[in-house]
Amino acid sequence: MKWKCLNCGFEVDASVEYYWKCPRCSSPLILDYESTCEIVESKNVWERYRGFIPFKPGKYRGEGLTPLVEEKIGEHRVLFKLDYLNPGGSFKDRGTALAIAYGYKLGFKKTLVDTSGNTGISVTLYSKLYGLEPIIVMPTTAPQGKKKAVLKLGGRLVEAESRATATQLVTRFMSEPGVYYVGHIWNHLYPIGHATIAYEVFEEQGVPDVVIVPVGSGGLLLGVHYGFKKLKECGLINRMPRIIGVQGYSCQPVYRELYGTEEKGEESNLADGILVPNPPRTREIVEAVKSTSGEVVLVGNTEITRAHSELWEQGFLVEPTSAATYAGYKKIMNKIPSGSKTLIVLTGSGLKTL
Questions:
Q1: Strand 133-139 to strand 156-160: parallel, antiparallel, or no bridges (unpaired)?
Q2: Lowest model confidence (mean pLDDT) among 1-10, 155-164, 222-231, 335-344
Q3: What is the pLDDT of residue 167?
Q4: What is the mean pLDDT of residues 193-212?
Q5: Which of 30, 34, 179, 215 has the least C-beta neighbours within 10 A?
Q6: How confident is the model at residue 66 (pLDDT cuts 50, 70, 90)?
Q7: Where are the domains of the chain?
Q8: How many other CB atoms are there within 10 angstroms of residue 177's CB atom?
């Protein structure tokens, strides 16, 4: 198991050293490990997909294996993956379970992360399970419910002016002894954990024609792409789904990188989970979208609000960032061929934003 930089060739044994980014060129690192491609009968997601992950976490709280609900919308089959039903109320638990287990194995005593909210809750939850002290840096604009959840779980909450300044502020704490900067927007264990969504969907429904996900740091999009790519490499599937990312007009770094321009439109600040201005893996996200003939769609607050109401009326108690994904689907549904099977990942619980 090695940390590797695809940009400059740096590599190190991941079982003894951790780098949240390449120490030579500051590029994101990937975790290189052997896979057996084996799926075993188990209700524990890490046991079930042990052949696809680098190690099995020591603690388990029921993350993963979330419901997949099929709905007929017009001529489309829409598969809603209810990842807001994870223990911490978001899909982030899949990546965090691996990331915190790894930090614990390496002997860290504190965890540190900058987040708009969901990762803060997730990191706090799993850190406390391992007896680690979580330091969570969040923007003041983050939903109060998410801040309260971090505090209730026992996290040390530090507030910053914005999502961007939260990222800058974490450097203050990195020099403290025994601090593990989880760095979820950099840490490759997050996409590896999120890839289990693809494995679960494959087992239940095969390969969808289209996958639609929100894009903040891009870990979910990269994870789903990584998962289906792994299945293809293992010979379990013979095609990739078309991957579509959803961003908002207020923050569109991946759209800009993909199309070379920004599009003017209504504010989209209701979807706090996708307000990440400079995702470090932007190039990888764009490559994943391009390789599947996908696209990036932009939405605004009016579309998000309408989609949010529709989802709640259908019984999906999600937050606005999840609704942005559904809004993106509604915006392009006429371009999706009739009879297609579309996967929409519902990422975060709306109960934290009431």
A1: parallel
A2: 155-164
A3: 79
A4: 98
A5: 34
A6: very high
A7: 68-91+189-352, 92-181
A8: 7
Cβ-contact 169, 114 below 8 angstroms: yes
Supply 296's token pair: 């990036």
Please give the structure tokens belonging to residue 179: 């601090």
Fold agreement between 68-91+189-352 and 92-181: yes
For β-strands 295-299 and 2-4, DSSP reports them as unpaired
Architecture of domain 68-91+189-352: 3-Layer(aba) Sandwich (3.40)
Pairing of strands 295-299, 242-248: parallel
Rounded distance, CA 293 to CA 288, Å? 9
Bridge partners, residue 251, by sequence? 248
């691996």: which residue's tokens? 98
d(CA 100, CA 63): 14
Residue 85 tokens, joined? 């039903």
**Which of 150, 82, 86 has its CA nearest to residue 116?**
150
The rounded distance, in Å, linking the Cα atoms of 147 and 192 is 27
Contact status, residue 196 vs residue 45, Cβ threshold 8 Å: yes
Q: How confident is the model at residue 165 (pLDDT cuts 50, 70, 90)?
A: confident
In angstroms, rounded to a whole number, what is the distance separating the alpha carbons of residues 294 and 50? Answer: 29
| Contact by Cβ (8 Å): 123, 103 | no
Q: Percentage of the chain with pLDDT > 70? A: 100
pLDDT at 181 over 80: yes
**Dihedral angle sign, alpha carbons of residues 33, 35, 40, 45:** positive
CA dist., res. 337 & res. 172, Å (int): 51
Cα separations in angstroms, 2 against 5, 9, 32, 120, 158: 10, 12, 5, 27, 32
Q: Please, are residues 119 and 140 in contact by the beta-carbon 8 Å criterion?
A: no
Question: DSSP assignment, residue 337?
Answer: P
